[in-house]
What does this fold into?
Amino acid sequence: MPNWYADLPDIKPKYLAISQLITGLIQEDRLLPSQRLPAERELAKLLRVDRSTVSRAFQELTANGLLVKKGGSGTFVAPVPTVNTLPDKINWGQYLRNTTTSHSLIQRKLTQARALNPHLIDGAANELPMALIPQLGDLQLNWQDFLLAQRQEQDAGYLPLIQTLERHHTQRQQFHTDRQTLLITGGAQQALLLILSSLLKIGDAVAFTKPSYFATSAVFKTLGVRPFTIPLIPTGLDLAVLEKTIRQHRIKLLLLNPTFQNPTGLLLSLEQRQRIIKLCQKYQVAIVEDDVFGWLSTKQDAIPTLKALAPQNVIYISSLSKLLGSSTRLGWIVAPDAIGQRLLQVQKRLDIVPSMLAQVMANLALTTVAFDPGITQLTKELAQRRQATVAIFRSLRPEWQFITPQGGFYLWVTQTDPTIFDHLLERQILVKPGTLYGAPKTAFRFNFAGIDLEQQRRLRDLLM
It folds into this structure.
């Protein structure tokens, strides 16, 4: 008999390892035609895997003609196993299995709803509507200027853009970039991928809030990183659960979106930020601060960033997508110099350096005289639309529970109807279901940025 566990190939997923093992045993005549295999439960115990893993391997091998199942008798090697026959085409089905998730089904439903009814109230949008993106005028760039600009490209990105962003952070009193490395990325999601792939190994653990847009990210599964969620409570992050999770699961990174959090719009207080930093320092947990909405903080409402409070313990991420549209695909990381150099090495090795043309155009946008007034006007317009939407919801849906955010462009609503997504869609109102953020079906996110005066009238009529 084979030494099942010792002979098992060291590959993943395990059902493929089992398939390879049994195929090899048949080829080597160590399993003979019509020979009975151990029962699934018994073989799972021998291989130290779940029974479902063995069952899936048996299904593959049966479909390929190597095994046969006999009801009530067990699983046997086929009388004439087709182990030496090469298929005439790739079985693409094995690559496509289990790729449909509840997240992808909801996204498909959102896409279909928009296509079938372009006039619906789209509260499920992720970004600003085109009409609200700051009007920056003509950004002049001829080809010769672009060729000359390429001479200023560094490992971290386009030098004038790096300098512009450093000035931005200093002038807005967010933090200083002394002993820090600022590197350009292809957006905030790529920045997160770069940080995780540079600093973590398979099996390491990260934590983030619940609900959170991080819940929909595929990056954790792609990198083999274990995610754990920390609930948000009325006062902010549940620090007792955070500490317990850090101790139980050896959390390496805490991912936070502390300013106008997506999806709740929560703004963590200064006291909360200080307590989070102190706790993470105690357990040597690094913090990744996602600050894509930091642009929309007014000076009156601004709370020091985590990066400002603990510059050597925090890796800072931001991007332009919430201001200039999702297709901008330009972000940046600010990290302590030692970490920044590591990120640069990995970025270069993976060849995920953002387009030079995009960097040059972004710098032109950020340095135009219309940029700062445009952000000020955007912040004012968002505040007006937020107040109008809140007034409509409170008047016509008093049972809906939500906290009015101080910025951003999302409202996070909880209520009691688990079919709220479908019921609102019937009224031509599109929302983002709470399940996309790790929350129950009774919650949803509503983007009020597109609710201009005309949309406000329609929204009021549709909810009456």
User: Anything to note?
Assistant: The first strand starts at residue 67 and ends at 70. The chain has three domains: 4-96, 102-131+372-463, 140-367. The mean pLDDT is 89.
